[in-house]
Amino acid sequence: MTDTEWIFLGIGIGLLIIIILATVIAIKHYSRKNKIKKVSELGNLILKAIGKENITSLKLNRQRLTINIIDADFIDKELLKKANLRAVVSKKEVKFLIKESEKQLYTFLRKERKGD
Predict the structure, then answer these.
(1) Which of 49, 47, 35, 62 is nearest to 110 (CA)?
(2) Whose CA, among 8, 28, 99, 116, lies 20 to 30 Å from 55?
(3) What is the mean pLDDT of residues 31-45?
């Protein structure tokens, strides 16, 4: 191979690497944006079903989100069923099993509850 061919080969490999990196970065950015949107939608749905003023405290233990409430009668159980959320409702608390982004959801609920 001549020097010119080696230069073109190097430029081609460099461009290929740049294209691959740009694609990976774009995919990560898009999936992160989607995840944030899903967390906020789920958080707003939980707040709507339970009621902000009905929540006394929140606790996260691994994938289990426990929300202490004032009264279970104010919970819209049909809305929770429509959202396909797995929840165990007792007299003073609601427990959810969150499969993904549980920390982000917990943070979102804390901020929205306080009105920050």
Answers:
(1) 47
(2) 99
(3) 79
